[in-house]
Amino acid sequence: MMSDKVTLANRKEDYQRLGITKKPATWEDGMRTNGQAGTFEWWYFDAEYTDGSKVVVVFYTKDGFDIKGEACPSIRFELTLPDGRSITKLLSEKKGSTIRASKEKCDVKIDRSSVQYSNGQYLIHFVDDEIDYRCTMKSILPMWRPKTGYMYFGEKQEDFFAWFVAQPSAKLEAVLTLNGERRELVGNGYHDHNWGNVEMNKVINHWYWCRANVGPYTVISCDIIAEKKYGYKRSPIIMIAKDGEILEDQEEHTKIERKDTINHPFTKKFMDNKLKFTQSSGHNTSYQIEYHRKDDLVASSLLAGMKLSLPLKIAIKVLKMNPTYVRCIGTVTLRVNKNGREEVYEQEALWEQMFFAKNKHAIIHE
User: Fold this and answer.
1) Parallel, antiparallel, or unpaired: how do β-strands 107-110 and 100-101 relate?
2) Looking at the predicted structure, is the pLDDT value of residue 2 above 50?
3) Which CATH number characterizes residue 294's domain?
4) 0.85 cut: is pTM over it?
5) Residue-wise pLDDT tens digits, 12-41
6) Most buried among 172, 229, 316, 360, using CB within 10 Å?
7) Are 183 and 175 in contact (CB under 8 A)?
8) What is the residue-wise DSSP string for 52-104?
9) Domain tally for the chain?
10) Is 252 helix (H, G, I), strand (E, B) or coil?
11) Exposed/middle/buried for 196, CB within 10 Å: 0-12, 13-18, 19+?
């Protein structure tokens, strides 16, 4: 069956084969690949500060999703200032150099920048000639992953995409120095870690990746659609937490609706302005999470900034590849129904749409 080709691994033998237990461990946020051709891996960090500043830092073993390419430790730093101005930095070490990273915990160094885990905290340092960003992220929720964290594709289940959420939510304290001007910041952040062994455009068509802190709750909700060869199979992911405890992460009970679909002016692909995740739970409890897009912080081509070889440039032109990324901003509304009584919370939120494939449409199968 087509649906059997896309699996979020969850069997007892899956955990044993991967050498993990149901409880996530610190070492899982260490380096999980060799950083060479045939793999991809990155550590992602984002931050929202009370003054309106937003920061995203990503440490890569190579140029993003460049599976076939050689090692090339790289950093992407994105800063959105309270007045709406944005600054993006892309730094890379020499092609062929292996990333300096530990397998025991998150401890990564690229150029003069680094991220280190110690006693429940992550210390991020990004530096170049204009910017010095130092951030301490203190976890307020336990490490988490959906099931094993491994999504497998194909009859032989050899191709995979893995996801580990080291910090579903964290309190932040940071110092940002921009062109000599020093700013002290406080806010909330998130950190996850991805790796895999297959070109994403071959297995995933597109996804919506959403997270929010709304009222006393933290929510992660994703809608992942496989490529055409896997029948555009939908794989929902959900996590709902409160007061330091994960309450719900059973994606098999998640229903997703998309509404107000438009043609995005930059990507020329569809964009669903409204997303609704409905989660049935035990104990007479249900959750409804609605995202309403108002604007975009980023709309870009995934090829921008990549150091592409001539053969790859030719392939992109011939195949008309057009991978795109949009980081949306809008409101999220959470409705919690317990024993017939409803609680409603609303908050500003960020989420993303990522298209790996060139097509503008997808038929989604549950």
Assistant:
1) antiparallel
2) no
3) 2.40.370.10
4) yes
5) 999 999 999 999 999 999 999 999 999 999
6) 172
7) yes
8) S-EEEEEEESSSTT-SSSPP--EEEEEEE-TTS-EEEEEEE--TTPPPEE-SS
9) 2
10) helix
11) buried
